[in-house]
Design brief:
Elements: E1 10-11, H1 12-28, H2 38-56, E2 59-62, E3 66-72, E4 75-80, E5 84-87, E6 93-98, E7 102-105, E8 109-112, E9 118-129, H3 132-137, H4 142-160, H5 180-195, E10 200-212, H6 214-254, H7 261-276
Helix pairs in contact: 1-2, 4-5, 6-7
Length: 292
């Protein structure tokens, strides 16, 4: 596997002086036609002019956070990461690679979660090239490689965990909805493993969109609402039972009234109806005796 090697080519300013001397020599050659053969002077001028143009082809500029991968006749010669004005062998192929951080706003994918529910998921990824030799020589198109491998990683992540859990009897495990931070860490780790071949490093990866697919979104919403209603009613019942128990204990403690089992059962029933009912109750006042 090819590894990146950093090189520093010649300063372009030195070669610029050399090019100026060559150009001056090419201009002065016709002057020697007076002393010799005119044909030889023309040929000499053409040769020197070709050398001048060939030398000028070796100049290149590197901006900050950019690099050039140098390849000579199919052989990797190194990477220039210093910014400035340089000169290298004109026969070298100089491929530009940006070292800046880039954003990839992934498209929304429809996949199945661990439970088989169809969901929609998308991710935003921040990445940059760390090894220019791998990025250029190990893969065909490193930018397209990032896109395809990112989609594959998001699909694999969605298949590994459920969107949500509805099991109240056990402690819920990691889910895509509830475990966002952990899911993002796992996605970033998997992306770095997948993109290492291309010399790409992922700085940050986050789930940007997560929802049930449209065909089951309505059913899942009803399910979530039903679970919320059941949990709320359970809380209400637990509170009502505690209040009834407290009322019976206080009545017995203060000896305000003595109730037999039948009267206690009726009182408990009435209190539970009042405390657990969804609508306001309308009490009926008994103006007679205790037993009528």
């Amino acid at each position: 596997m090819i590894k990146e090697t950093t090189v520093r080519p010649l300063s372009a300013y030195i070669m610029l002086v050399v090019c100026l001397f060559i150009l001056a020599f090419a201009i002065l050659i016709p002057a020697f036609s007076l002393l010799g053969s005119k044909g030889l002077s023309v040929i000499g001028g053409l040769v020197v002019g070709f050398i001048f143009l060939f030398t000028c082809a070796g100049f290149f500029i590197i901006n900050p956070n950019e690099s050039k991968v140098l390849i000579l006749f199919g052989e990797y010669k190194g990477t220039v990461k210093d910014y400035g004005f340089f000169w290298a062998n004109p026969f070298m192929v100089k491929k530009n690679v940006s070292l800046r951080a880039r954003n990839l706003n992934g498209s929304t994918l429809k996949v199945n979660d661990k439970l088989g529910n169809p969901i929609e998921i998308a991710a935003v990824i921040v990445w940059q090239v760390r090894d220019t030799a791998k990025a250029i020589l190990e893969v065909d198109d490193y930018q397209q490689f990032v896109v395809i491998q990112s989609e594959a990683a998001v699909r694999h992540l969605a298949n590994t965990f459920p969107y949500d859990t509805f099991d109240d009897d056990h402690e819920p495990g990691l889910t895509l909805r509830a475990g966002a931070e952990k899911v993002n860490e796992l996605l970033e780790l998997e992306l770095n493993e997948r993109l290492a071949r291309a010399g790409i490093f992922v700085l940050e990866a986050r789930i940007s969109h997560l929802a049930y697919a449209s065909e089951i979104a309505g059913a899942m919403l009803q399910r979530q609402q039903a679970i919320a209603v059941v949990a709320a009613r359970r809380q209400i019942v637990e509170g009502a039972v505690g209040m009834v128990e407290m009322a019976l204990d206080r009545l017995s403690e203060k000896q305000i009234v003595n109730l037999d089992e039948e009267r206690k059962a009726a009182m408990v029933s009435n209190l539970l109806v009042v405390l657990c009912g969804e609508k306001a109750v309308h009490p009926i006042l008994n103006a007679g005796t205790l037993h009528h």
